[in-house]
Amino acid sequence: MTTHSLKPIVHGIFDKATGTVTYIVHHGIGSACAIIDSVLDYDPKSGRTTTTSAEKVVEYVNEHRLKVEWILETHAHADHISAAPYLKKHSGGKIAIGDHITQVQKVFKGVYNLETEFKEDGSQFDHLLTSDEEFKVGELVGKVLFVPGHTPACVAYQFGDAVFVGDTLFMPDVGTARCDFPGGDARTLYASTRKILSLPGETRLFMCHDYPPNDRPIAFETTVAEQRAKNIHVHAGITENQFVEMRTKRDATLEMPVLILPAVQINIRAGELPPKEANGVSYLKIPLNTL
Question: pLDDT digit string (tens) for 49-66?
Answer without folding.
Answer: 999 999 999 999 999 999
